[in-house]
Specification:
By secondary structure, the chain is of the alpha/beta class. The protein folds into 2 domains: about 90 residues, Winged helix-like DNA-binding domain superfamily/Winged helix DNA-binding domain (Arc Repressor Mutant, subunit A, Orthogonal Bundle), CATH 1.10.10; about 110 residues, 3-Layer(aba) Sandwich (Rossmann fold). It contains 11 helices and 9 strands. α3 crosses α4, α3 runs antiparallel to α6 and α4 crosses α5. The longest helix is centred in the N-terminal third of the chain and has 19 residues.
Length: about 260
């Protein structure tokens, strides 16, 4: 197991999380507030696959609320999430009691609660390490700000890129990253550097106080257990798709959910 990654829950398959969710006001649901006070203890027992489904439910709920939907069923959420209504109810039950049997869930209230569960009741400060093609695409994606993630800095070691402006941000020399981060206190670092540089750079980030890293480098980072690392490995995702296609051809069925 890679240091810095949380231990998987029983029966959990390794997964990649690279979606980010939105930021809106904190809910007033009393049941959820009671659960939320113990979130630090509770969240440690929640599988990554469950968190990923919560993000999917949230997107569907936001779209539904925008179209005037007031009540939504577990069956509706299950169809959008590619799962079962029983799984939806199980996912939500980790965090409290929502809705009434036979009546569904109040869409706006559940939307607000899921935003709070996912920690989206605040703005998260993000730095990009690596001003290459991936870093460029991330900085230019304005949807992150809309969903509560504010990119506050970009760093690179290439003298040709240092000093250039990206969407209002000036690319800084990575030699200054530790001092800057100790002053600016970002919440999340996105690592888009070459694989051979990733471990050393990530250790510098951790020394500056970073506790969460989204890693695009094709390596497994060895970091202290208190640092949360999420890996985005496009090759592995493509291999998952090739597996599904290969087994569909062999068996005449879709094996992607097996």
């Amino acid at each position: 197991m890679v240091a810095g990654a949380p231990a998987p829950c029983a029966g959990q398959k390794p997964s990649t999380i690279y979606e980010m969710a939105s930021s809106l006001p904190r809910p007033t649901c009393l049941v959820f507030e009671r659960i939320h006070k113990h979130a630090t203890t509770l969240v440690k027992r929640i599988a990554d696959s469950t968190v990923r489904r919560l993000s999917i439910y949230l997107r569907f709920l936001e779209d539904s609320v925008a179209h005037g939907v007031r009540t939504i069923s577990s069956e509706d959420l299950a169809r959008r999430g590619g799962t079962t209504s029983a799984q939806v109810r199980k996912d939500l039950s980790f965090f409290g009691s929502f809705g009434k049997r036979g009546l569904g869930y109040p869409a706006q209230e559940l939307t607000t609660s899921l935003r709070d569960i996912l920690g989206l009741d605040r703005v998260w400060r993000v730095v990009i390490i690596g001003a290459g093609k991936i870093g460029t695409a991330l900085v230019q994606h304005h949807g992150f700000r809309q969903r509560g993630f504010e990119i506050v800095g970009v760093y690179d070691a290439d003298a040709r890129k240092i000093g250039s402006k990206w969407d209002g941000l000036v690319v800084r020399d990575i030699r200054h990253v530790v001092g800057d981060l100790q002053t600016d206190h970002p919440d999340i670092a996105v690592l888009t550097v070459p694989g051979e540089e990733a471990q050393a750079v990530s250790e510098r980030l951790v020394s500056a106080g970073v506790k969460a890293i989204l890693n695009f480098a094709p390596v497994q980072l060895q970091l202290p257990a208190e640092v949360t690392v999420r890996n985005v490995n496009m090759a592995m995702e493509l291999e998952g798709l090739s597996y599904a296609l290969t087994n569909r051809e062999r068996n005449g069925t879709d094996a992607s959910d097996a």
